[in-house]
Design goal:
Blueprint (H helix, E strand, L loop, with lengths): L1 H21 L22 E4 H9 L9 E9 L7 E8 L6 E10 L7 H10 L2 H5 L35 H17 L13 E9 L3 H7 L6 E7 L9 H14 L10 H15 L4 E4 L6 E2 L2 E2 L7 H115 L1
Antiparallel strand pairs: 1-5, 2-3, 2-6, 3-4, 4-5, 6-7, 8-9
Length: about 425
């Protein structure tokens, strides 16, 4: 009933947040690949840690603005006592939350770390490097097909083993006794190391996929929890991904006794606590690293080398970021110089165009002045010509008048003589 209530509350929260987004009162979740999935998705996404870190997180600056606010260490109930870590990661604007689950299970030989695996095989003794571990106690080889296994796809000791029934358990006991008598003589059969399957699952919390992912560990036990007080700097999602990646690559092979899901969860958890001082730890129970209540004594302690690799990886990344920043700064300086040169050339061309335009305008003004002078000269000539024409006409009229007067005078003289 409690689980159904939590399921209903999650759905109500999702509907309420969706309603607020529709009203514009809450922003849309960011789209950050590998952390915040599309809210329309109905199933959460999963990736192997290597590709997830390299392709989605490492070189994405937005992941450095996302902060880890809570870490929970879970242990599955039932016979498949798988252990995993769940991280709550806030968005850059602190308004949204992502859920990331990291875990390890047994898998096939991992092609991503073949070279590392081969190195491990060559540097150890034949028995240490290539032999599969001795058959573990019955309590450590249990399948995860039980309904209580939740999200885990494998048991706490051997996540890839088939479900063990009574007959299988009896046979295993017989094999264990035989193994004790055979001892090191079984070293004649060599097997390649079994690669670990380290993966993350992620989704935006206020989504259908997020509700699904959030319910994965509802039936599981809380082992421990880390929280980060206000005075403590929060680890970023980028830093968390780096830690998961170096942990995965430090021990790329799955060993049923030493480097199983217990080892992975414990190493990441304690490395976080070691790297980020001031975090607060809440202990729920002391069943970590146990199967059916019995402690697996040989879980490998790898916190110190993981922290060392983490710091080296962060230093390398910081150096790459600095080099990238310098390269971008240099490119920006070159672009600035190119812009300055282009602007100077454009300014010179503009000044040249303005000078040519001014010269053209001056030429046009001079031409217009000459045209006006020609027009004035022509007008003066026309005036003078008209005056000459009038003078000539007047002269002709005067001459005509004189002729007439002379004619009249001659006529008058002739009359007087008569």
């Amino acid at each position: 009933m409690a689980i159904d209530t939590r399921f209903m509350l999650r759905n109500l929260r999702i509907l309420f947040r969706r309603f607020l987004r529709m009203l514009g009162m809450v922003s849309e979740p960011p789209k950050i690949e590998g952390l915040f999935s599309d809210c329309r998705l109905t199933a959460y996404e999963s990736q192997d840690i290597g590709p997830w870190y390299r392709s989605c997180i490492r070189d994405n600056p937005a992941t450095s603005d996302c902060s880890v606010v809570e870490v929970v260490w879970y242990k599955a109930r039932g016979r498949a006592e798988h252990e995993a870590l769940r991280f709550h990661i806030s968005s850059p604007d602190k308004e949204h939350m992502s859920i990331v689950i990291a875990e390890r299970s047994g898998g096939d030989r991992n092609p991503e770390i073949d070279a590392q695996t081969d190195t491990v095989t060559n540097r150890g003794s034949p028995q240490d490097a290539t032999m599969s571990p001795a058959t573990p106690p019955d309590t450590a080889v249990v399948s995860s097909t039980s309904s209580d296994a939740g999200h885990a796809t494998a048991s706490s000791a051997d996540e890839g083993s088939p479900r063990a029934g009574p007959a299988t358990m009896t046979n295993r006991k017989t094999k264990q006794k035989s193994t004790k008598h055979v001892g090191t003589s079984s070293g004649s059969s060599f097997k390649p190391p079994r690669g670990a399957h380290d993966r993350v699952s992620y989704a935006t919390r206020d989504s259908v996929a997020g509700a699904q992912l959030e319910g994965v560990h509802e039936k599981d036990r809380r082992i421990r929890m880390l929280t980060f007080p206000e005075r403590v700097p929060l680890p970023s999602a980028n830093e968390l991904a780096t830690l998961l990646y170096v942990t995965s690559t430090l021990e790329p092979n799955y060993d049923i006794k030493e480097t199983q899901c217990y080892w992975f969860a414990a190493t990441v958890f304690w490395a976080l606590k070691s790297l980020f001082e001031g975090v607060e730890q809440e202990i729920a129970n002391h069943r970590a690293g146990t199967t059916l209540g019995m402690q697996i004594a040989s879980i490998k302690d790898s916190v110190e080398p993981v922290c060392k690799r983490y710091k080296e990886a962060r230093a390398t990344l910081a150096e790459e970021i600095e080099q990238k920043r310098k390269a971008e700064q240099q490119q920006e300086e070159e672009r600035r110089q190119e812009r300055a040169q282009r602007e100077a050339a454009e300014e010179a061309a503009k000044r040249e165009r303005e000078q040519r335009q001014a010269a053209e305008e001056e030429r046009q003004r001079a031409e217009e002045e000459r045209q006006r002078e020609r027009e004035q000269r022509q007008a003066a000539e026309d005036v003078a010509k008209a005056a000459e024409e009038r003078a000539r006409t007047a002269e002709e009229a005067n001459a005509e008048l004189r002729r007439r007067l002379e004619a009249l005078e001659r006529a008058g003289a002739s009359t007087q003589q008569v």
